[in-house]
Amino acid sequence: MSEAVLPPVTPSGAMIRTLGLVATVCGVLIVTAYEGTLDAVNANKKIALERAVFKVIPGAAKVDEYVATATGIQPAGAAIPEGAVKFYAAYDQAGGLKGIAAEGAAKGYADTVRVMYAYDPAKQAVTGLGVVSMRETPGIGDKIYTDEAFLKNFEALDVQLSSDMKALANAVKVVKHGTKQNAWEIDAISGATVTSKAVGRGINESARKLLPLLVPNLEKLKTAPSPNAQSAVSPPFIKGGEGGFSTVSITHTLTHLSQNPPQPPLSPPGGIEKGWRWQAHLAEEVTS
Amino acid sequence: MIPGQKQLSNLEELLEGVWKQNPVFVMVLGMCPTLAVSVSAMNAVSMGLATTFVLVGSTFLVSLLRNVIPKEVRIATYIVIIATFVTVVDYLIQAISLAVYDALGAFIQLIVVNCIILGRAEAHASKNPPLRSVLNALGMGAGFTVGLFALGGVREILGAGKLFGFSLFGPDFQPWVVMVLPPGGFFVLGAWLLLFNWLNSRKTDAAPAKPAEGHAHV
């Protein structure tokens, strides 16, 4: 205000020095906290994710993260490529594919409703629903995970693909309470229509994008029946996300190798991921 | 708000925030997280502890640096320090429990603008040595935690029939849902303020020159 009148004006050097000192101390503190908690945070996230997947796919023993892109499917790495859809493959104790889980999200009444749904490739249907996060009105919107009748919609919600495998045969639709007629319709909760619709939209959006990319490549996800590979999987090895994935993909590479000996070397130049993509191409050729 | 010239003992310094200047019930500060997060006792206590951590950490650092910080840039310095501790507590909560992290949502980051913390840095830590600042911050944090718990506990009991997630009344209890909705926060806060002001005015009845303190801030 009256800086010109006040005799003791702090020189800017002192201000810069102080701010620099404080910023340095703070930077060190933040980095220390980040490094110190990183492992615990990642472990927590993994547990939370597994819990969410296990909830919608009962009997699953381990979960691997994948992304589906236009060129096929590959294990989810640090960077998710443009246009890719993330999904989770759940395996049972013996290493067989139990089901696929993916997340859907849509705007609800208060905030985005994020759900995890299970997709059963054999039935071509959604077979389970879990809520990842929501801030809907307690007692009303939260019926989407407490209302038995509503959850019945997701025991066999039809999401089969159209004959050209490019889109869903029937879009998942939320209908007024009590008017469900088709297997691809969701009977809304009366009084919580907005939230019910958000669930339906979330599943529809996600399934519409994911399934056309995923279904042609489903074979890649089924663990090879080779008994050697399965016995080689020791329990701690299953636990880690990385380990779990490489077991599966190496098994695949081996099976393919035995079928097409001259094709790629066991560890292709681009690493295992390349191998995956190559397999995906093969699959497309076979199916088309 | 500044405790006058009279020197308080260390114990008094600690208890200042818990009772006489309780941030929730007397100063009525930090209402935004108070109302938003106190839907359950667990959330309320987690938020209280997170805020206490930030309070203690930032007042300690501010108090250590109080003679180096030029007054022209003091607010900027305080905010940087507070933001640092908020970031640290953000990581810590993620490491401890993702469920709590999700429940508290954006309100963890918003601790940075909680006026209790900047208020303590400006009004107390910048004028007192580290030990006293930390004691004062601990008391304020405890007072805030107690205040949040008083709201969160009541709201969870009435609105969900539970306390810390344990069912209290059995399955036949019909929850009073409005209590865990935003209006419930105001109802419960109003009831507590009423109680505190009534207690205060009863105490000050003997000295009628000083009416209940809380009013001015509401």
Overview in brief:
Chain A has helices at residues 12-56, 148-152, 193-214, 218-221, 227-232, 235-239, 241-259, 271-287, and strands at residues 62-69, 72-75, 85-91, 97-107, 112-120, 125-133, 157-158, 173-175, 185-187.
* Estimated radius of gyration of chain A: 25 Å
State the low-pLDDT regions of chain B, or none.
1-5, 211-218
Rounded to the nearest angstrom, the radius of gyration of chain B is: 18 Å
Strand content of chain B: under 5%
Helix/sheet category of chain A? alpha+beta
Strand order of the largest sheet of chain B: 1-2
Low-confidence stretches of chain A: 224-288
Query: Can you count the beta strands of chain A?
Result: 9
Explain the overall architecture.
- The complex is a heterodimer of chains A (288) and B (218).
- Chain A has 288 residues and is α+β, with helices and mostly antiparallel strands.
- Chain A has one domain.
- Chain A is 43% helix and 19% strand.
- In chain A, the strands form two sheets. A seven-stranded antiparallel sheet of chain A has the order 2-1-3-4-5-6-7. A two-stranded parallel ribbon of chain A has the order 8-9.
- Chain A is globular, with a radius of gyration of 25 Å.
- Chain B has helices at 10-20, 31-37, 41-64, 74-96, 98-104, 115-123, 130-160, 182-203, 214-217, and strands at 162-163, 166-167.
- Chain B is mostly helical.
- Chain B is globular, with a radius of gyration of 18 Å.
- Chain B has nine helices and two strands; from the N terminus they run αααααααββαα.
- Chain B has one domain.
- Chain B has a two-stranded antiparallel sheet.
- In chain B, α1 packs parallel to α7 and α4 crosses α6 (115-123).
- In chain B, 63% of the residues lie in helices and 2% in strands.
- Classes of the chains: A alpha+beta (288), B mainly alpha (218).
- Chain A binds chain B through residues 10, 14-15, 18-19, 21-23, 25-26, 29-30, 33-34, 36-37, 40-41, 44-45, 48, 133, 135, 137-139, and chain B through 39, 61, 65, 68-73, 76-77, 80-81, 83-85, 87-88, 91-92, 94-99, 102, 105, 159-160, 175, 177, 180-181.
